[in-house]
Amino acid sequence: MRNAIWAALATVQDPELCRDLVSLGMVESAEVSDGVAAVRINLTTPACPLKATIEADVRRAVLAVPGVEAVGVTFGATVRPPARLPLPGIKHILLVGSGKGGVGKSSVAVGLAASLALDGARVGLLDADVYGPSVAHMLGQGQGRITADAERRMQPIEAHGVRFISMANLSPAGQALVWRGPMLHSAVQQFLKDAAWGELDYLIVDLPPGTGDVQLSLTQNVTVTGAVLVTTPQDVALIDASRALDMFRKANVPVLGVIENMSYFVAPDTGQTYDLFGRGGARSLGLDVLGELPLDIDARQDADRGTPSVLAHPQSAVSLALRQVARTVAGRVSVQTLGSSLTSSPWPDAGSAVFCAA
């Protein structure tokens, strides 16, 4: 019967990777005793967006095996690394960019990092906005200081399960940095290569606005798994987002999709929805829209208080949307790492989704 169970599992496909669980090496064990099957699946990310679908498909397939009366499904997760790590101990580097300031890019980067950590991933966050660092404040560590270990490597600060480095923790509060390009390049290289990040599944990089020195330094010196664009719906933001998109394409950085931030506002007293900046403009970029995040008063207050909204208000609309976006991004990283049935661009046109044919 054990062989029959493995054969049944070989008919179950990962909905994103479009291959069966057995050939992907995701079936960690499958045993049966007294009619009860016990199956353990090792997911490609702890933030798997389709975990429930996989579980239902596994149960259905195994229950169809003659003699099986019940099925228990448990899960583990191992983020698969690429053929070559971008940095020692770091499996994937993900960039979060916008092209312009004021669209909530840093808030989204913090939310994505906290969400992935909540799901069990090992996450780092690099605040590469050297001139306007805000990550430390949003994580409640604005007064923290970066220290060095015995090997004189910078020790990231940890908050809410996320290891991070920010210039805010290296320079006096309120002090302006007046640096030219070479100094920016040197700082970014130190943050990446001279820091004791440890073992990370994902290192998220919060980019500064624009398409300048920091972006060039990153894309030319490390292998980036992918980038996520953040924009608000109005034209003035989309114009700069399109420039950031062009930069990523010229640097051969895969763009995983776009997040439309401040997409709408729901009045807390009436429940009425207002499209303050328009809505749906992100679709004009021709990318898959990963999520539409509402303008949320609690999320703003949570950032000021130093606790990510996904922790402070986990059931709010913006937190639920961020959790789903993070899982979608993690799934797409798995698709890119393990390969998919798509042969041209790894991501479809806006509005569609990556799923296997039924």
UniProtKB/TrEMBL annotation:
Q: Which residues form the MIP18 family-like domain?
A: 3-73
* UniProt-annotated binding residues for ATP: 99-106
Q: Which Gene3D superfamilies match?
A: Fe-S cluster assembly (FSCA), P-loop containing nucleotide triphosphate hydrolases
Keyword Methyltransferase carried by entry = no
Against InterPro entries, the record matches this protein to:
FSCA_dom_sf, MIP18-like, Mrp-like_CS, Mrp/NBP35_ATP-bd, NUBPL-like, P-loop_NTPase, YlxH/NBP35
Q: Which GO terms describe its molecular function?
A: ATP binding
Instruction: Could you list this entry's UniProt keywords, alphabetically sorted.
Output: ATP-binding, Hydrolase, Iron, Iron-sulfur, Metal-binding, Nucleotide-binding
Q: Does the UniProt entry include the keyword Iron?
A: yes
Which PROSITE patterns has this protein been placed in?
MRP
Q: Which family does it belong to?
A: In the C-terminal section; belongs to the Mrp/NBP35 ATP-binding proteins family. Belongs to the Mrp/NBP35 ATP-binding proteins family.
Quaternary form?
Answer: Homodimer.
**What exactly does this protein do?**
Binds and transfers iron-sulfur (Fe-S) clusters to target apoproteins. Can hydrolyze ATP.
**What is this protein's name?**
Iron-sulfur cluster carrier protein
Species whose genome carries this gene: Deinococcus lacus
